[in-house]
Amino acid sequence: MLFKLKFVSDFGPKKFEKYSGLVKFISTKENIKKEMENFSKRFGIGLNDLQRKAFLNEKTNSITINNQQREPSIIYLYKVNMKKDFTVDYFRNTLAGLIQSMKDSELESLSILLPDFVPYKKYFSNEYYYQTFLEGIWLGNYSFDKYLSKKEKPKKLTINFYSHESVKVRQLIKTTELLMQSVYFARDLVNEPALILTPMELAKQAKYELSGAGVSVKIFDKKELQKRKMNAILSVGSSSANDPCMIIMHYKPKTKPKGKIALVGKGVTYDSGGLSIKPTSGMVEMKADMAGGALVIGTIRAAALTKLPVELIGVVPAVENMVAGNSYKPGDIIKTSSGKSIEVKDTDAEGRIILADALEYASKQKPDEIIDFATLTGACVVALGEIAAGIMTQNDNLANKLINSGEQTFERLWRLPFWKDYNEMIKSDIADVSNLGPRWGGAITAGKFLEHFIDEKIPWAHLDIAGPAIKHKSTNYTEKYDTGFGVRLMFNYLKNHFNRD
């Protein structure tokens, strides 16, 4: 992380500490010139004519003012353009970028004047409005420098949030810290190189982290997988020197649960493509092919630490998809733990194969819902780009709730068609289902494959997170490191729908 953070919330600043910065947002719904002058007078900030002119320019979104050896020493003045392109990610993304820009700064504290909620109530709930500011600081502060030979010790930075609702902000500080530390943990797992994060190492790290949060963790090793006839997982993992496993996590609140949800995440810690081998350019990011598993682990950690009243079962099949003389092959037929058979047409469509055993296991736990997450197809990235995940389900209620949480957290989902017609594309003449359809509709046929292994009585949704889970340039906080996509989305979903009296 860039800074060792300390958060404070109060009604308003009494005085500014030495080496302090100040952040002010002015909405275009307000009289910008008047608000700028009032702000200048209130804090004794001398704005010159050039600075005034620059900020009033329609093309200017922000200015930075050096306050000439007075405190606050640096002022960051932002214009919130409510007339154009405002999203629920504005404050989060802006503060993430600001913290990153301060990496080499000598500032020891940053005071943020939180705007009143009323002008923004169209976009946010009252509580989540303030949470986005906190999330922005945390997301911008993330770094993965574990393997740098030269790295600086994080400097201390106090963040002062000033608001008329300072009591509410103080309440949010601790909850958001627990959530964002869980996002950090998920991101650390995804950014860890496959040389270190083998299937069993992923299991060990999950067990170590979650056991401390009161979560029961079991690890099905190779012997247990064989006993349970989980041949889908065993086949994909057969050619690696690192044995496959399956991680089972169970969080049960001390109060009566308000629901029982199974979360299933793809845990391919490295994907070479197997015998259907990828080109080198396609392998570079494949340490992140376990991002769905990391999402599940991070979500359960956050739910347990914040004591959400919902029972969670997490299932993560973990394998390496490698190449060897004993690799599973195109043309093989795999009999899964459910008894259903899979014709293998491409060993690079391995994620759906291991999820077959995992989803069948999750169904047997009789949850109220099953939601799975996987960096499953490049086809989904072609369809939606890197800024959204695809959601596939037959259940409109579940889809709408998840999409709504995605809109709030800016971890957005787009619903893809999921008609029965697509089943025709993965029919096999020699097995119950083929692991690959034709070129077209690849994300949907992958989802249809998974549907074969779900108890049809249980509401289920499949999220293909292949695009937004990998680093991309659409926001300040996703550009440099793999993203931990989905933890905030799922925490929001669980909190909003299973935390009510």
Secondary-structure blueprint:
Blueprint: E1 3-10, E2 20-27, H1 32-43, H2 49-56, E3 62-66, E4 74-80, H3 90-101, E5 109-113, H4 126-141, E6 155-162, H5 166-191, H6 199-211, E7 216-220, H7 222-227, H8 231-236, E8 245-251, E9 260-265, E10 267-271, H9 280-283, H10 291-305, E11 311-321, E12 333-335, E13 341-343, H11 351-364, E14 369-374, H12 378-384, E15 389-393, H13 396-409, E16 413-415, E17 433-434, H14 442-451, E18 460-464, H15 487-497
Parallel strand pairs: 1-6, 2-4, 2-5, 5-6, 9-11, 9-14, 10-11, 13-17, 14-18, 15-16
Antiparallel strand pairs: 3-4, 7-8, 8-11, 12-13, 15-18
Helix pairs in contact: 3-4, 4-5, 5-10, 10-15, 11-14, 13-15
Brief overview:
This protein has 501 residues and is α/β, with parallel strands linked by helices.
Q: Could you characterize the architecture of this molecule?
A:
The chain has helices at 32-43, 49-56, 90-101, 126-141, 166-191, 199-211, 222-227, 231-236, 280-283, 291-305, 351-364, 378-384, 396-409, 442-451, 487-497; strands at residues 3-10, 20-27, 62-66, 74-80, 109-113, 155-162, 216-220, 245-251, 260-265, 267-271, 311-321, 333-335, 341-343, 369-374, 389-393, 413-415, 433-434, 460-464. With 501 residues, it is of the alpha/beta class. It has two domains: 3-167, Leucine Aminopeptidase, subunit E, domain 1, CATH 3.40.220; 183-497, 3-Layer(aba) Sandwich (Aminopeptidase). Strands 7, 8, 9, 10, 11, 14, 15, 16 and 18 form a nine-stranded mixed sheet that branches. The longest helix is centred in the middle third of the chain and has 26 residues, at 166-191. The radius of gyration is 24 Å and the shape is elongated. The model has no long low-confidence stretch (mean pLDDT 96).
